[in-house]
Write a structure and sequence with these properties.
Layout lengths: L1 E4 L9 E2 L6 H13 L3 E2 L3 E2 L4 E2 L9 E2 L2 E5 L1 H6 L3 E5 L10 E5 L27 H12 L7 H23 L3 H17 L4 H29 L11 H15 L4 E3 L2 E3 L2 H15 L7 H9 L7 H7 L5 H9 L14 H6 L1 H18 L9 E7 L10 E7 L1 H4 L1
Parallel strand pairs: 4-8
Antiparallel strand pairs: 1-7, 2-6, 3-7, 5-6, 8-9, 10-11, 12-13
Helix pairs in contact: 3-4, 4-13, 5-6, 6-7
InterPro entries: Endo/exonu/phosph_ase_sf
Protein name: Endonuclease/exonuclease/phosphatase domain-containing protein
Length: about 400
């Protein structure tokens, strides 16, 4: 980790004055960090760390001081936060790096979801994965309603895929290290024909492990703008780490007081949205009175088309329109799963969806979401600075 006054900024929003910052200087700074394998650790607090202490219109403020670190450091200390403290007598503000290092006697109190399942892209194309899905969907349909039957198949599939993943992949990082050590050991000795063949096999294994590791981190980086085939584990890991750090809520301002305890932060969010979404419960007469003032726009012909029964083709059209790697809901199955294995799961999926759409069956079993708070501003410090995003199950989105 490196800290200091770099005398340069990464973007124009880190600089405030009557003139724009020099673009070549910012590009040079970004390239230097990339060449050194360093990434900005972000911050909370004041947006700028330096000022020229002059009055308007000669005021200049910039974020010249920062913490940057490499991938190894962020992997070793995943729970960190950088604070920009209040200015003192200097033209620079102090900056503080806080680390959370859990121990057996004082475990990390930060909340984490337990046993969170997520269908992985690295599973696609693997025949055992396809066999597991086919077996789960080949079981005879039970007497349960279509929604309950579909949900049971998903649960069974999730359990079997988790077991298969642990047995097949385990820790990719550990496997890569083992293969690299084996290659180094063989390279240090005499390379006979037999050893040469073994080395060739190990290098092929290492290449495949690297490919899987790329897919693993690319899925978590959400770098959708990259072209298929782009390869850079280090970049994907950095992007994923930056996303995680940017979205992490370590402190919150409430009534001019900073709160940092995770339980207090949770209560602050709950109280805010409970008050926001509390309805005054208007009577039916008041609602009807408002509706009567709305002019009719839907003709009888349009209405006839709208009330037609939904079809399987429309269900598939909805599925294939989704971003394959968008974040999944509580069940952990993203659109990627449905799009890749549609021939196998089509019948049960359509039966469940169409039973709800055409027969008005209850869909409550799938109406669960993961609520994620996304910062709307660079330096989010209050509850109102976050936007709630509901991550719904794909079956519910359909």
């Amino acid at each position: 980790v490196v800290v200091g006054d770099f005398n340069e900024v990464l973007s124009q929003d880190e600089h405030f004055s009557s003139c724009l910052r020099s673009i070549p200087g910012m590009i040079c700074f970004r390239n230097s960090l990339d060449d050194c394998g360093l990434m900005d650790l972000g911050f909370s607090g004041l947006p700028f760390t330096w000022t020229n202490n002059r009055t308007h219109p000669s005021t200049v403020k910039a974020r010249l001081d920062r913490f940057v670190a490499n991938q190894n450091w962020t992997a070793l200390f995943p729970d960190f936060s950088v604070l920009h403290l209040k200015f003192g007598g200097s033209d620079h503000s102090p900056i503080l790096l806080q680390l959370t290092i859990p121990s057996s006697s004082q475990p990390n109190r930060r909340w984490r979801p337990r046993n969170f399942f997520k269908f992985e892209r690295i599973w696609c194309g693997k025949e055992p994965c396809k066999d597991i899905i086919r077996d789960c969907w080949a079981t005879p349909r039970s007497s349960l309603c279509p929604q309950a039957s579909f949900l049971r198949r998903l649960q069974t599939c999730r359990q079997k895929l988790q077991g298969w993943h642990r047995a097949t992949f385990g820790s990719l990082k550990a496997k890569i290290k083992i293969v690299q050590d084996q290659i180094s050991e063989l390279m240090a000795g005499h390379i006979s024909n037999e050893v040469g063949l073994h080395l060739k096999d190990l290098k092929a294994q290492l290449k495949e492990l690297w490919r899987l590791d790329e897919l693993w981190w690319k899925q978590r980086s959400k770098a959708y703008w990259l072209k298929e085939g782009d390869k850079n584990n280090k970049f994907f890991h950095s992007v994923a780490s930056q996303r995680r750090q940017r979205n992490k809520i370590t402190r919150l301002k409430s009534h001019d007081t900073w709160i940092e305890d995770p339980a207090d932060i949770q209560r602050e969010f709950l109280a805010f949205y409970e008050q926001l979404f509390t309805s005054s419960a208007p009577c039916r007469e008041a609602i009807s009175e408002v509706v009567r003032t709305i002019p009719r726009r839907v003709t009888n012909e349009m209405n006839d088309k709208l009330i037609q029964a939904f079809t399987e083709d429309e269900v598939w059209f909805a599925v294939k329109q989704m971003n394959a790697e968008s974040a999944p809901g509580p069940d952990g199955f993203p659109p990627l799963f449905y799009q890749n294995y549609w021939p196998i799961i089509k019948e049960e999926t359509c039966c469940s969806v169409l039973d709800f759409l055409n027969n008005r069956r209850s869909f409550q079993k799938f109406n669960h979401t993961n609520l994620v708070m996304i910062p709307k501003v660079t330096d989010a410090s209050e509850v109102s600075h976050f936007r709630p995003i509901s991550l719904c199950n794909v079956i519910y989105k359909i």
